[in-house]
Design brief:
The structure is a homodimer. Chain A is α/β, with parallel strands linked by helices. In chain A, about 40% of the residues lie in helices and about 20% in strands. The interface between A and B is large, with 124 and 125 residues. Chains A, B: One of its GO terms (molecular function) is 2-isopropylmalate synthase activity.
Chain lengths: ~525, ~525
């Protein structure tokens, strides 16, 4: 519970509206994992889906009711439509499914734009109002708390404000205690939207919520402007996932509400979890995190400019809008051709290497990094490879734990349709020449397996090292399959994670380079 | 020239501030290509870089001056600092470099936050003002038009408004004709920022510009709010590229100004070019376009929800905030497990296939698509593969132009360090069994080369087919290199482009599937 209690709602709809995003498909266990993370963060409401309309959502609520989901902070919300036109509410199967879900809170979606009522629902305003009132009343009588999502509210209000307000009134008459103004098509801008919200609050006195889509790239701004105009309930999705351009990003909205408006909308200790939770939710959605995302992106506090990098050495707080640590993020200095010496010096400091008194080394490393980057390498995301490069230049590296003589990978798609990948490596380790062969799902997997098989008897620490993530980027798309490939490998030993990079025209060789760096980097840490 | 002429400036800084974005590195010819695209779009000003500070930027201006860049709409702008503290302006090398660049317009950056003046510049307010005034005056006397970027303006104004205003006054005294208020650390929100802009306009009467960073996810909203408060000059970058969370996105800002505020800030015919230019600029930056970007993203008008998809058949304009064609984008209906029959029916219509009277086929295809998507396939971006699947189900496909017997790929990293990829395919084509072997840069390239070698003597149309783009996505990052791989291949025959998809645990087999679909799809079009 936050200090604001029920007086301000952070309402998450990642599992319902967020799941409309292109490329997002949650399984039921994904949905449970998402709900647990959001609850841990301390949001007040988690909209779990549309029971009765989507089988997976029905199952999600059933499993939650069976005890597969225990919430500490949040209340679970079922989303659904009002009764259909001309049908009695108690006979409406979809409404029944909302009750059956067992969710203590129900959010009903209703049309609040006369054109939608007439052209999409093909009914009239009076019946639309009755549908809203009846359904809310029915659910409230069954002990549910009910919110109303007034779809297309802003467009409808501009076209015919009377109809839009009547929709809200019908909901409140039925017993709804929040009416949520939805910018469903996402065409609003903050100043105009804030005026409408203030107008609605003044004219109705209702408790107002806000739900914004990002079609003008203003969803976060619109949400904040609505709060400043009187809304006390914000609907968001993790990382802004959602249909078309997406929804208002939970993390930016919360970041702004807490750090800019001073509203404690999450439990105090949760703010520092924003970055971690954002990345975990991206993982579950299987969408690469947006590195430029406000507050939580890996670049959100990354400084590249040589100009600023020198000033940052003097006074970091002058160059960040907040302390990155407050949201669990870090300031990073990027090593690129634009950054130059000052950035690399700072980067060295991160690795515990003092380059201040080694101006010649610094010059050499800057030149080497520039050359490599010109060939497609990138150290921005591969600190471990950069550290190896720096230490190599300073002659601080021990002899590598192994050396390669050769490898061969054979891929067979046989006549019976089976596919076999087999790799053989010949390496020198601990004074011995070792040959090992292994199969794998693909060429890189086979190569990794063969290398491990060869090394493990000699390097026992290898056992703890695992691949966390493997990313492939084709660098120029001018040449189709003969482009240069950059591979990033994230490894872990259960305690630390580190990322290495490999670049080559051949994807297998690029992967090999990144895999080798990962092991060499681990070797530098063994015995520390 | 727009109808607004000089009274409203669309000022692009993709080549300077945008180049600070993590992962962006422009070559000089990239920079020229970017400038040509922006000029074609009709922006008023193109900030080309910082001559004298970055060698590539110096060269860019030199080549532009030599005639490598002919601008129809825009004026080229050189960016740079004021003279250093305690140095005469005519002796300042960096200021000299701005003149030498030959750019008709110069934007000077100056500190307007007292803390930055004292702690980063280590000088006092009076000297800072003199630096601004002297430098502007010097450049104006040399015939340049000068704008002032007042760095950290909003933070500075909140801390000590007098100092911030004195910076602006010094610039105008020197002859600057726009003072640009910069939210350099990006911490502003629209309502507060609009108040400050209105306050500055009211107190000074100066012509005011706006430059926003996206650290609160409000850069676009802040830019629009500033215009509503009186700013008549907006600084943006293509696709919001820029340091940390990025800058205000040119395309969203222009889209909003034109379609929401009715300001004709670009030549009338340019609006429909927004999507094309955005994607071309992403290509040059070598950054995958953001599919969820407002106005220009491939998902910006993509509808997934089964609910909405049925309504869209009735009345598309109810579900888009603008006509997608107005910005050169398209409405798309996504085929996913959530979409169901209505979406697939609409999709069939796009391919010229009428599924309305084939309900059984529709049921089978929906089920098949769901099964494949559960296994990692995605047809959202691979229309050509979906079309093949649909036609196959309708038995509308001819026999495939070739069939595979087997392939083998061998990769050797030899003892001398050379790397060889060789592929052999055995295929049946035009009644013959053909065996062909070829080498390539990597396994997929070798396989593609061998397949072409085998087929070309029998399928002459193959000659025109080229790979445009090849994308690899590792689907679950839980298992490192044994994850499932999805490959998207974009092909072209010089007239059309089409995308196919392949999914497999083995990256080479996934690529093979996508390559084969690409050729089979082309075969369905031969002779049309």
């Amino acid at each position: 519970m936050t200090t604001l209690g029920d007086s301000f709602h952070v309402y998450d709809t990642t599992l319902r509206d967020g799941a409309q995003g292109e490329g997002i498909t949650y399984s039921v266990s994904d949905k449970l994992a998402v709900a647990r993370l959001l609850d841990g963060l301390g949001v007040g409401f988690i909209e779990g889906g549309w029971p009765g309309a989507l089988p997976k959502d029905t199952e999600f609520f059933a499993r939650a009711a069976r005890g597969d989901l225990t919430l500490k902070n949040a209340q679970l919300v079922a989303f659904g439509s009002t009764r259909k036109a001309g049908v009695k509410v108690q006979d409406d199967k979809q409404v029944r499914a909302l009750l059956d879900s067992g969710a203590p809170v129900v959010t009903l979606v209703a049309k609040s734009d006369r054109r939608h009522i007439e052209r999409a629902l093909r009914t009239d305003v009076a019946e639309n109002c009755a549908m809203v009132r009846d359904t809310v009343r029915f659910l409230v009588a069954e002990g549910r708390r009910v919110f109303l999502d007034a779809e297309h509210f802003f467009d409808g209000f501009a076209f015919d404000s009377d109809t839009s307000l009547r929709t809200l009134e019908s909901a409140v008459e039925g017993g709804a205690d929040v009416v949520v103004l939805c910018d469903t098509n996402g065409g609003q801008l903050p100043l105009g939207l804030a005026e409408t919200v203030a107008d609605v609050v003044a004219r109705t006195g209702f408790r107002v919520g806000i739900h914004c889509q990002d079609d003008t790239s203003c969803a976060v701004a619109n949400t904040i402007a609505a709060v400043q105009a009187g809304a006390t309930h914000v609907q968001c999705t993790a990382n802004g996932y959602g249909e078309r351009a997406g929804n208002a990003d939970l993390f930016a909205v919360v970041g702004n509400l807490v750090t800019k408006l001073g509203l404690d909308v999450l439990p105090r200790e949760s703010l520092a979890e924003l970055t971690r939770v954002s990345h975990a939710l991206a993982e579950i959605a299987n969408i690469a995190p947006d590195s430029h995302q406000a507050y939580v992106g890996s670049s959100a506090f990354a400084h590249k400019a040589g100009l600023h990098a020198s000033a940052i050495k003097v006074d970091p707080e002058l160059y960040n809008h907040i302390d990155p640590g407050a949201v669990g993020n870090d300031m990073r200095v990027l090593v690129t051709e634009m950054a130059g010496r000052a950035s690399l010096e700072l980067k060295g400091r991160e690795f515990g290497i003092d380059l201040t008194r080694r101006p010649d080394t610094l010059t050499t490393v800057v030149r080497k990094v520039k050359e490599l980057e010109a060939g497609g390498w990138s150290f921005e995301a591969a600190d471990a490879s950069l550290e190896l490069l720096l230490k190599d230049e300073l002659s601080e590296l021990d002899a590598p734990p192994f050396t390669l003589e050769s490898y061969r990978v054979v891929l067979d798609h046989t006549q019976d349709g089976s596919i076999v990948s087999e790799a053989t490596v010949k390496v020198h380790v601990a004074g011995e020449r070792v040959i090992a062969t292994a199969e794998g799902n693909g060429p890189v997997h086979a190569l990794d397996a063969a290398l491990r098989k060869a090394l493990l008897p000699h390097l026992s620490w290898l056992d703890s090292v695992q691949l966390n993530d493997y990313k492939v980027r084709i660098l120029t798309d001018q040449h189709g399959t003969d482009a240069v490939t950059r591979v990033l490998v994230e490894s872990t030993d259960g305690e630390r994670e580190w990322t290495t990079v490999g670049v080559h025209g051949n994807i297998v060789e690029a992967s090999w380079l990144a895999l080798c760096d990962a092991l060499v980097h681990k070797a530098t840490r063994v015995g520390e």
